Amino acid sequence: MYKLYNVKTWGSLAIHCLLEEMEAPYTNIWMTPEQVRAPAFRAVSPLGMVPALGLADGRTLYESAAIVAFLVAAHPEKRMSPPIGSPDYGEFLSLLVFMSAEIYGAGNFAMDAAGLVQSETEQRRLKTMLLQRVDSYWAILEKRLASSGPWIMGSDFSALDLYAFMLSVWGAPTEEALHAKYPPVAELANAVRARPKLKAALEAHGVLKPGGYVASDLV
To answer: Measuring CA to CA, how many Å separate 165 from each of 27, 128, 184?
Structure first.
């Protein structure tokens, strides 16, 4: 059985949804931001971040994209990715890392601009530049969804859609604004929210409807 170290609306959201969608056995460990940042948690997650996924043998995985890649490979019968080793799976991994490194990564740096540069002017400039970059990445996903949707991998729902949904919840300046600018992204988010297996998890995170996340303390 897995152990999911989970904070509401943080980066564990996609993993929580994936475990629910796969009906994989797990224990959900709700944490507060303060608990995640405490030195003791680094024994679980060296980065001091969520998600962290405890394995049956006592080891813990971290980095959201790595956890997604592990889970879909560990449970191929759930069909949450293309067949492992196929060209489609290679594309799946490319898109997963793209979303993790670029959209998630740049968005995180934008949220933490105050910790990266000193003056308020520099902070505003850095945040603006990073959010513009994130916006250009959403344009790439929009183009893909518009041409071959409704899901990121085309007609097949996958873990990528849960990951993209999580990122869309954090959309800047708001999720609703992101949806208005990129209708195919809004359609994907609406379709994810309509999946019966996810209702309880989305309610627990407060994101069953758009607007449940307030950008303030993203990790």
So the answer is: 23, 23, 12
**Residue 121: CB atoms within 10 Å:** 9
115: tokens are 């910790």
Q: Is the pTM of this model over 0.85?
A: yes
Provide the 10 A C-beta neighbour count for residue 23. Answer: 10
Predicted confidence (pLDDT) per residue in 32-52, tens digit: 999 999 999 999 999 899 999
Q: Which helix (H) or strand (E) holds 61?
A: strand 60-62
- The CATH number of the domain holding residue 157 is 1.20.1050.10
Residue closest to 189 by CA, chosen among 153, 163, 214: 163
* Radius of gyration of the chain, Cα coordinates, nearest whole angstrom: 17
56 shares a domain with 110? no
